[in-house]
Amino acid sequence: MKMQDTMSVTVIGLGYVGIVTAACLSSRGILVYCHDINPEKLSAIRNGVSPIYEPGLEDLLRNAVMNGRLRVVEDPAEGISRSSYTIITVGTPSLSDGSADLSQVFSAAETIGKCLRSLNQRHVVVLRSTVPPGTTIGPFMNILESFSGKKCGLDFGLCFNPEFLREGSAVEDTLNPDRIVIGCIDQKSGEELLSLYRALHQEQLPPVIMTTPTSAELIKYANNAFLAMKISFINMISRLCEKLPGGNVDEVAAGIGADKRIGPYFLKAGLGWGGSCFPKDLRALRRIFLEAGLKPHLIDATIEINDGQVEWVCRLLERELSTLSGKRIAILGAAFKEFTDDVRESQAIRLANRLLNSGASISIFDPAATINVSKVLDGKVDIAKSIDECLENADAAVIATPWPVFRSLTPEKLREKMKGKIIIDARRIIDPKLFESSEFRLLILGSYMESRRE
After folding, report:
1. Residues 24, 277, 314, 390: which is the catalytic one?
2. pTM of this structure
3. Among 37, 313, 330, 381, who pairs with 394 as Cys (CB 3.0-4.6 Å)?
4. Catalytic annotation on 184?
5. Which CATH number, 3.40.47.10, 3.40.50.300, 3.10.20.30, 3.40.50.720, labels domain 3-211?
């Protein structure tokens, strides 16, 4: 029998990483047991319905449930007792001091440890949640050993295996990753996890980096911090471009991105980064530096620049409208990026709250995130069902998420709905040539902004 026909995995924690991991593993013939503490999420998955918006995920999920390769378990012990691997993908949100909240990770370790106590076969525990360096071989391993009564390495395997998924392309990133990083407690554990990845990727196994759990944990934090830093860097340059006649940050980004030492990725200027990973991971890494007695200069600058992008858009609006009080602002986009419904730490949501605090009224539209917007802004803003509804009687409009549908905005379309003539393209997706001879004032972040016309 082929390896992938005999392998079985339990996934604990069915957020973005967990549900995508489970669906992709099961799509390659691996039996997956899924567990989460949220009963509504389990019910949806049991019916083949994805709890999140992610391109390509629901088809994979539906097929996996129908063919019996993906099974929901309300008791994680049911899955652990029947599988060779347990993958932990629970959340590690920020605490008030910026450090990572590891309570869900430790709770999962306790549950797994209790199950390991009664297991007679070899089992590999794989931690994928983002945790501070030293967690896997420290408190996490100690909890496993304490509740199992067994010795890590000798009686069960243990690895830290960071994920590098991008929301909006998480399925593709899981099935075709740039690399696999395995931080293993010993060589045997690493080889056992590698065999699972060989079953998943078969002949297309990507480069594999074998290292210690501590280095793997730091790789994850450093990876996200570096990507966020690239975005903040180009946003810093974009502010200068706005002051220089002929300045265009996209052309600058293309010029430096052509240098192979820099590369073209994550050099898209705009409103800034957000989501469930970058903000919390940079806060956590900053805290790790401080606890080590080191100064996180670059991390602080990265965060400061990002925070300043929202404030800059507010200042532009106030400059153009003379005041924000009593003005109606249309915000196009709410998710932190396109092709997702995730509004966690979205710059668009931060912008809406900042404008509300200045006395403006807000209408907001997002093609995918309406339900999630209602959870964080319901009662404070008008949540529109269409672009036209969002633009109705607006004094100004801001493109806050680069959904492709917003590229279709033209002076003719805006003229029909808007009261005012101010457009801020905070994601650089509008063709400025369409507005050259119109009465609209189009301000594009990262492009030269002429003095206000009187």
Report:
1. 277
2. 0.94
3. 330
4. no
5. 3.40.50.720
